[in-house]
Write a structure and sequence with these properties.
536 residues; alpha+beta; six-stranded mixed β-sheet
């Protein structure tokens, strides 16, 4: 009898420990009361303990039925009281952390500097220096690269998630291979993952980087090698923000995980406070404070968090009620964001628009995605999707789709540059759109040509194009032709040395005849060279 009573206690306790342990191992909640996952697991644990207690009570026959109603044991009532108190406190903490009561805290998370676009953003001299590829195109090229490796294609896939990074100032997109299935992991798990794909978004090509030491920590692994499980055991209390795959300047792979903590009360205004850097090959992890993150790390603050924090800043600065009713002075970011490489850092850029007008930007922000430093540029003009529509409209007969644009500086002019893709995702054309005047649109089938055409249009629009940044030559005109095409006229100039130049129609050229001397300016010489400007 005594033995049965012992088993009646021991078995429920062991079951409770087992179920709780499995629940933790599967869900991986942070052991941090500032996390909603923690409280979900807390109530789950209370339920398991309560279930175990009921089993023990049944085994010991301590549950009493009074008037056909079960009389709960005292410990169950205690658990219910604990759960009720916890729920009440969570409700209070949630209200105390809300934007209604803590609008000032939300709006003051960031400091926004005012910048001068022409001075702060280096000029782009050639379109070939700019990363134009979006993630959709990177996936196509990356998968094509893996398809050429016969020893890997049946065992691994390329992850759909590409990270924009800068390696010694050069932009790349990187994505690790992953096990194709659970059974492939069983087969190859002891060896690991042999490498990652590195895509050049400037040249539109990719290479597979084969590692000497294989990747052993990955989202496609299981048990202790699963990425999120390895991170959780390395930092049991961390509330994870973003987790990105990156490589250092030597090409070694790492997982970069940002750690969040609430800045407004118990549950409000989560922001990055630390970064965990985990070696993807060895699983070794190191935690850094924000100011100590290695310079090669690029993505600490995601574009989503950057935009969310700016929206708090732009909407709640005048108080919560103002953000709902009068909305005086309220501004928000536009619907999407892009990346830009400046020096060795990756920056997130997005437009800023009034809450009452989403057709145009009043300016835009550039934010360092490693340090989280915000700079605002008061450059009014087209928001990104309007610019994309303008580019698509200029070649509407082809029904091409524009990628989200990159922001560049051309002779001090803020300019959107993007690719135009067909229905299969193949890049067909390039387009440049002036931010302040999105009627100034240029498209071309080549990168060099679109850049030259754009500089020529700037010059014709009265924008001073720096001659020092251009190639120049003085020629003698042999022949000049005016060729109309789709409502515009292109002027072709043949020089006496046999070279041919072209430029959009300019009335002053009507006074030019054979034998006249012209000084022509251009960026790159081609069989038919696009002129940026000329002097008679």
């Amino acid at each position: 009898m005594q033995k049965n009573r012992m088993l009646g206690t021991l078995i429920p306790v062991l079951l409770a420990v087992l179920v709780t342990g499995i629940g933790y191992y599967v869900t991986l909640p942070p052991l941090n009361p500032h996390s909603s996952q923690f409280w979900t697991f807390f109530f789950f644990t209370l339920a398991v303990i309560g279930g175990a207690g009921l089993l023990i009570s049944l085994a010991h026959r301590k549950i009493v039925v009074v008037n056909q109603h079960m009389k709960l044991p005292v410990f169950i009532k205690v658990l219910l009281v604990i759960a009720g108190i916890a729920l009440a406190l969570l409700l209070i903490f949630s209200i105390a952390s809300s934007q209604l009561l803590r609008a000032g805290t939300y709006s003051s998370l960031i400091t926004v500097e005012q910048g001068d676009f022409a001075e702060d953003v280096p000029q782009s001299e050639y379109v070939t220096d700019i990363a134009l590829m979006d993630s959709d195109s990177a996936r196509i090229i990356g998968a094509r690269t893996l398809g050429t490796l016969s020893d890997l294609v049946s065992q691994y896939n390329v992850s759909d998630t590409y990270t924009q990074i800068a390696m010694e100032g050069v932009p790349f997109k990187v994505s690790p291979l992953e096990h194709a299935s659970f059974f492939k992991w069983l087969q190859n798990g002891s060896k690991g993952i042999p490498g990652y794909v590195k895509v050049d978004p400037v040249a539109f090509d990719a290479e597979f980087v084969r590692l000497e030491q294989y990747i052993t920590i990955s989202p496609s692994c299981y048990l202790g090698d699963d990425l999120m499980r390895a991170l959780r055991f390395a930092a049991p209390t961390a509330i994870w923000g973003s987790v990105y795959f990156e490589v250092d300047d030597q090409g070694n792979p790492f997982w970069i995980a940002s750690v969040l903590e609430p800045q407004a009360g118990w549950f409000g205004a989560y922001d990055v406070t630390e970064v965990v850097v985990m070696d993807a090959c060895t699983g070794e992890a190191q935690t850094y404070a924000l100011g100590e993150v290695p310079a090669w790390v690029d993505i600490v603050f995601t574009g989503y968090l950057i935009c969310e924090k700016y929206d708090w800043y732009g909407m709640l600065g005048g108080g919560y009620l103002n953000s709902i009713f009068s909305q005086t002075g309220c501004v928000v970011t536009t619907d999407d964001f892009g990346y830009k490489i400046i020096g060795d850092d990756v920056y997130v850029f997005t437009g800023v628009t009034s809450v009452s007008n989403d057709e145009a930007n009043i300016g835009f922000i550039l934010v360092n995605s490693r340090t989280g430093e915000y700079t605002y540029y008061a450059v009014p003009g087209a928001e990104e999707y309007s610019a994309m529509a303008a580019a698509e409209g200029s070649v509407q007969q082809y029904r091409y789709e524009a990628s989200f644009p990159t922001l560049i500086n051309v002779n001090g002019e803020a300019t959107y540059i993007m690719v135009l893709k067909d229905a299969s995702g193949i890049v067909k054309m390039y387009s440049m759109v002036n931010v302040e005047n999105y009627n100034l649109v240029v498209t071309s089938e080549t990168q060099n040509d679109v850049f030259q055409k754009y500089k020529a249009r700037l010059s014709q629009s009265g924008v001073n194009v720096d001659s020092d940044s251009l190639e120049s030559r003085t020629i003698t005109v042999e022949e000049i032709l005016y060729i109309p095409n789709n409502g515009t006229t292109t002027v072709y100039i043949r020089s006496t040395d046999g070279k041919v130049y072209k430029i959009a129609f300019d009335e002053s050229l009507l006074l030019t005849t054979a034998g006249d001397r012209l000084t022509v300016y251009y960026t790159i010489e081609e069989p038919i060279t696009q002129l940026v400007k000329f002097e008679q």
